[in-house]
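Sequence in, structure out.
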Amino acid sequence: MKPSEKFAHDFFEATSYGRSDAPESEEIEPAPQFFSYGVDERVCLPEIDEKPGGDIWRAMAGRRSIRSFEDTSITLEQLARLLWAAQGVTAMPGRHLLRTAPSAGATYSCETYVLVRNVEGLEPGSYHLYLPDRELEFIRKGDLSGDITEAGLNQKFLGQAPVVLAWSVICRRILWRYKKRAIRYIFADLGHIGQNVALAASAMGFGCCAVGAFYDDEVAQVIGLDREREYPVYLNAVGLSRQAATEGK
């Protein structure tokens, strides 16, 4: 068995359930549902119409992984739509903020970051989405497009896109409930988020491309997140594709 095969085999065996298995009794302190960077520079996301039009079936048919973007900006309202698709709050029963993308046990282990290169009304840099207030917290200033390209194994489209959305996971938010099995659920949750963003981008006439191949420590450094608390796991570059721009002329 090759090393990669053994890793996959061991992972699924370690997180498998059987009828004879005793319930896991490990006690894990859950992480807070939200955290803030506590920075002074914040941007309030604009309110959006939650019925922006567009047919879900057309959006699914039009979704493709796009790796070539026009050097054009997107608006803050368009960014707000993408973020709403990813983690928009749709209901508030009790202490939970239920969202557009499902999460195992409503644990919501993922954190959303935004790497801005060309968004109208926003300075270039990295931002953290603080969901309770629908605000973007400004973490790192400057054009990070070259850095994210290098961190993303030199995939050039990461530096071309006007915006790259990034997600990390805070494992203790879900480990306390599901123990080892939680790791499977984390990646299912990320898949729901990524598909929502892809369909939203398609409905808005944008292209996007999901990325899982990158140097973890470098991506964390580009974003400005603490790898002791969370792990970067998923990127999505979004913008107007060059093909769409050409067809529109």
